[in-house]
Amino acid sequence: xxxxxxxxxxxxxxxxxxxxxxxxxxxxxxxxxxxxxxxxxxxxxxxxxxxxxxxxxxxxxxxxxxxxxxxxxxxxxxxxxxxxxxxxxxxxxxxxxxxxxxxxxxxxxxxxxxxxxxxxxxxx
Amino acid sequence: xxxxxxxxxxxxxxxxxxxxxxxxxxxxxxxxxxxxxxxxxxxxxxxxxxxxxxxxxxxxxxxxxxxxxxxxxxxxxxxxxxxxxxxxxxxxxxxxxxxxxxxxxxxxxxxxxxxxxxxxxxxxxxxxxxxxxxxxxxxxxxxxxxxxxxxxxxxxxxxxxxxxxxxxxxxxxxxxxxxxxxxxxxxxxxxxxxxxxxxxxxxxxxxxxxxxxxxxxxxxxxxxxxxxxxxxxxxxxxxxxxxxxxxxxxxxxxxxxxxxxxxxxxxxxxxxxxxxxxxxxxxxxxxxxxxxxxxxxxxxxxxxxxxxxxxxxxxxxxxxxxxxxxxxxxxxxxxxxxxxxxxxxxxxxxxxxxxxxxxxxxxxxxxxxxxxxxxxxxxxxxxxxxxxxxxxxxxxxxxxxxxxxxxxxxxxxxxxxxxxxxxxxxxxxxxxxxxxxxxxxxxxxxxxxxxxxxxxxxxxxxxxxxxxxxxxxxxxxxxxxxxxxxxxxxxxxxxxxxxxxxxxxxxxxxxxxxxxxxxxxxxxxxxxxxxxxxxxxxxxxxxxxxxxxxxxxxxxx
Lengths: 124, 557
Fold this sequence. Notes:
Strand content of chain B: 5-15%
Distance between the termini of chain B: 38 Å
Oligomer: heterodimer
Shape of chain B: elongated
Shape of chain A: globular
Strand order of the largest sheet of chain A: 2-1-3-4-5
Largest sheet of chain B: 5 strands, antiparallel
Number of strands of chain A: 5
Radius of gyration of chain A: 14 Å
Distance between the termini of chain A: 11 Å
Radius of gyration of chain B: 40 Å
Number of helices of chain B: 16
Largest interface: A-B, 32 and 34 residues
Strand order of the largest sheet of chain B: 2-1-8-7-4
Structural class of chain B: alpha+beta
Helix content of chain A: 25-40%
Largest sheet of chain A: 5 strands, parallel
């Protein structure tokens, strides 16, 4: 399994992903973390990933916020079911509508291993 | 009509009736004392006829009031016909109307000096004196009229002053809402121009301008008629000279780009040492100084009090605005704090979740590896607890969401312009930074706006200019495709250093949606945007010739 994560504070969620990888994929899943929107030159490379998790805020040094990144991913035709929002905010649905984006599954912070498995494994 | 005028009219009505009774009673005494020309029933029926005609003409004005006077004199002529008029007993009947002249009601509200009265009196005298003028009686009447004239002048001036001061009562009757003292000056202006009886003495100004003295500068508070631009030459000197003399004439003022020299300046100081300069745009006339000191300064003192109350309210409102601003920051930081906590809590919740799972794992090797992850997470959770506790303290205060503009009101661009100008000057920004390109038609355009929200936007703009500019700024009131447009522009301090950061900010600002990143980096601009969106004011920022330009365009109704 290949997972891409846009998250500027990965240290807070790292253990969940490590445990997820260990328990479900014997540490063989590839987890790639991008701190900024500009940490990635070619967004097309993300097409090879099974899931892309996007934190909506990101740091002020990021050129694009999470909404803009989602917009960019949709532009290059990344399937909707690969996208998951990672956020601590509420009312994200309204914000998505405001930004003319489709409603996406949301993984609410603080995340736990169970929730991570629920979102990434169930139905897979 | 003023309260005093109302009372005066009622008294006049009663006196008018009583006066006719006095004439009839006095006439009866004359008829009783002297031999009479006609039979008793002629006199009796004339008394009845006299009252009937009086009743018909009772309290009528203009020409009918002359007929009433004629009725009086015809009756008097009939009574005195063929009787000697060289004694005070008979002569008094003839001059009773002269003595009563100030009660005469030729018009509704004013006492007038009636020439017709003297014509009738002298005419009747001439007829009764066998068509010969009696000079001694004429001289007596002339002196009586002189005394009447003085009394007339006194009541005239009283009425005039009462009307002027009543324009302030009228303002309160008509305006329950505050921030409309321009209407008060308008009422005063109308009242001053109402009467032309003493054209040579009284002022008939074309406009009255009230300016607040603030740190040796004159700031426009209100004007009776709208003015777009103004400039007072040697402000400091004007204030100094008015402080010494309280009166200054023919000092030029430039209004709407036109120099006006027919001016009278005066200064009013209230009990709290607040000073207001009033400029009366009027020719200087004979006794203007007396007129201004005796009539206008007491009146303007009252006007200043109204304006001062408005300033007081404005200050309250500014405090409220500051308060709201502080609350806004609390809201924003609270939202950020919640987000922060969510992040920081992740290792804590995850630690427990992983510990639970650990119990269920059978494979020793997996257990060993998971134990390493759990131990690491435990450390991370412990590390995170300290900032979590610190943040908890910070989010204890709660607040309302103050971003919402509840109501929009219909205003002309006159009002919008006035709000901006007033705000500009109150913020001690340069007055000559205004460039006015709006014509009268444009000023009449109406838009929907919330003045408080607009002031909030202005507050942020002014703060930005003060923070980032080297004091070269401008506000242009122009148009684009016949739609009103306001352009704020300012130079940028440390341009080379800041340009990159600013370009990013401008890009975010012009973006239709409020960007999450912008919320954190440009708090002021984010709020400007929030308000402009709700006010339906279109906005665009850009950099041109090393200047920051912010364009606001309005959608007329």
